Amino acid sequence: MRPATPARRTVPTELAALAAGVTQATIRKWASRGKLTRYGRPGRAEYDLNELYQLVVAGGRSRVDR
């Protein structure tokens, strides 16, 4: 039996930036550099909170290029 994959919890750019303690421009930059996956549709970007957590907290925010 395969372990269940947790459901993706996505938030818009503004909330992703607030959760990470960075600017919206930084969230967009991380996505454009492939550090963070962009979900959603054109004009409505969303980001996975678990992925954001791994990038910022588990990866060490000081090591992430802004």
Distance between the termini: 40 Å
Please give the number of β-strands.
3
Share of helix among residues? 40-55%
Order of helices and strands: EHHEEH
**Largest beta sheet, briefly?**
3 strands, antiparallel
Net shape:
globular
> What's the structural domain tally?
1
Question: Structural class of the secondary elements?
Answer: alpha+beta
The mean pLDDT is 87
- The radius of gyration over CA amounts to 12 Å
Beta-strand portion reads 15-25%
The count of helical stretches stands at 3
Widest beta sheet: strand line-up: 1-3-2
Your description of this structure?
With 66 residues, the protein is an alpha+beta fold. It has one domain. The protein is 41% helix and 18% strand. A 3-stranded antiparallel β-sheet has the order 1-3-2. The chain is globular. The N and C termini lie far apart (40 Å). The mean pLDDT is 87.
Considering the chains and any ligands shown, give keywords for the structure.
66 residues, alpha+beta, three-stranded antiparallel β-sheet, 3 helices
Topology:
Blueprint (H helix, E strand, L loop, with lengths): L9 E3 H8 L3 H9 L5 E4 L2 E5 H10 L8
Antiparallel strand pairs: 1-3, 2-3
Helix pairs in contact: 1-2
